[in-house]
Structures are given as structure tokens and as C-alpha cells.
Design brief:
There is one protein chain. With 225 residues, this protein is mainly β. It has one domain: Lipocalin, CATH 2.40.128. It contains 1 helix and 12 strands, in the order ββββββββαββββ. It has a 10-stranded antiparallel barrel. Strand 5 and strand 6 form a beta hairpin. The N and C termini lie far apart (46 Å). The relative contact order is 0.21.
Length: 225
């Protein structure tokens, strides 16, 4: 990793993208343009995610663009030191008779506190999902790639005292990436309520096993309004 001296003064995002799970449900809904959701799962730590989506019309696009923002935090401690903020958009690139191909492009920033160091990441991710999206249910297979393009590392006193006293804190580029392959499914109840499940298997950039949980899983509930 190449060390760089950089002061981050802003984090700005504008994306035309899609995240498929329950978020895609409002692409087929012409009555409600907003959606709030809550999901819990293992990624690989136990996490709770709060999210919001909003449909907008873009003149050059055939379908609605669904923007979204979500905040993910570790549970049960609810600490900003173990959390992630992600913002992006939702758009189906192909749609015919319930069959859809959906693309995801988003940016995220997050913090992780460990015994050896505290880390802040800035990443970009893209996901392709292929599946069937009916009025009351959907099922899709997915592939996602996330690239961490900037990291800030601050070593703990424990690390300096135990391993290397001269460890230097700072900004680093090229911190690596991760692939995820999986399936996603969901059903809608009474028009406004959604239940969805996400199961993904993570790999490193070299397709080696990813540390932590062998599967990333999430179960979510959503309300459209």
C-alpha cells in the first residue's frame, strides 16, 4: 500500500444505480414514491441497517430512478466507531415481462474499531442482479464488487506496545476489494409492507476465502408511503 498525505474535506456522491433487494420493489410501484426499511444481519459482524428510498423521474431515463441512503451500525453497542454510511440510486437497466437486470453503483464511508487499530474507509461498489420481479414477490441472483480506494489507519496503544512501537498512522490507498455472490428474495404484504432476505458469499479480489463469517445474511422489513 502506498502511503499518502491527504486531508479529506468532503465526501460527495451522485450515482445512477440500483440495489436490488427490497429496494427494487418500489420500481414496480406507481402508487408510492418513498420507502423506509430496517434490516438486521451478519456482514460479518452483527449489524443493524436503517434506510430510506425515494423515486424520482429523470427525463432521459425510461424508468424511475430510486435514490437511497442507509446507515449501518454494529449491534448491540450502536457505536459510530463500527458503522457505515452508504448512498446511491436504483435503476433497472433491462426489464421485460417481470424479468429484470439491475445495476448497483454506490459510494460508502465507514469506521471500524479493533484491538490493533481504528480504521476509516472510503469505497466504491457495483452490483449486478438478474432475476424475476413480480408485483408481490421477487427472486434474483447477484454479484457485487467493492473496492476500498482510501483508508485511514490509527494504531492503538496495545498494538504499539505489543507489536511495533514505531507504527505510523495515516492515509493509505489501494486497500483491496471484495467480491460477493448470492441470492435475494422478497414478498410484499398488503401493498405497503415488504419482507426480504439476502444471502451472499464473500471472497477476496483473488477469490480466496474472506475472513469472518462464511456467509453474509440480512433479513429486512420495509414500509412504502
Amino acid at each position: 500500500m502506498e502511503k499518502i498525505k491527504l486531508l479529506i474535506t468532503g465526501f460527495v456522491l451522485l450515482v445512477l444505480a440500483n440495489r436490488i433487494l427490497a429496494q427494487t420493489a418500489i420500481n414496480k410501484d406507481t402508487l408510492y414514491n418513498n420507502r423506509a426499511y430496517l434490516k438486521a444481519g451478519i456482514e460479518p459482524a452483527t449489524m443493524l441497517t436503517l434506510g430510506y428510498q425515494h423515486n424520482i423521474n429523470v427525463p432521459l431515463l425510461k424508468h424511475h430512478l430510486t435514490t437511497f441512503a442507509e446507515w449501518k451500525v454494529s449491534i448491540p453497542r450502536f457505536s459510530f466507531n463500527n458503522s457505515e454510511l452508504k448512498i446511491g440510486g436504483i435503476y433497472p437497466v433491462f426489464k421485460k415481462s417481470g424479468f429484470m437486470i439491475v445495476n448497483n453503483l454506490n459510494l460508502s464511508t465507514g469506521s471500524v474499531a479493533t484491538l490493533h487499530f481504528d480504521s476509516k474507509k472510503f469505497a466504491v461498489a457495483d452490483e449486478i442482479a438478474i432475476g424475476f420481479y413480480k408485483k408481490r414477490w421477487f427472486f434474483a441472483t447477484t454479484i457485487e464488487y467493492e473496492k476500498i480506494f482510501l483508508n485511514y489507519l490509527k494504531h492503538t496503544d496495545f498494538y504499539r506496545e505489543t507489536f511495533y512501537e514505531g507504527a505510523k498512522d495515516g492515509w493509505y490507498t489501494g486497500a483491496g476489494g471484495m467480491f460477493q455472490f448470492g441470492i435475494e428474495a422478497g414478498i410484499s404484504l398488503k401493498e405497503r409492507y415488504d419482507i426480504h432476505l439476502e444471502i451472499m458469499m464473500p471472497f477476496t479480489e483473488k477469490f480466496d476465502a474472506y475472513g469472518g463469517s462464511p456467509l453474509h445474511t440480512n433479513l429486512g422489513l420495509a414500509y412504502r408511503f
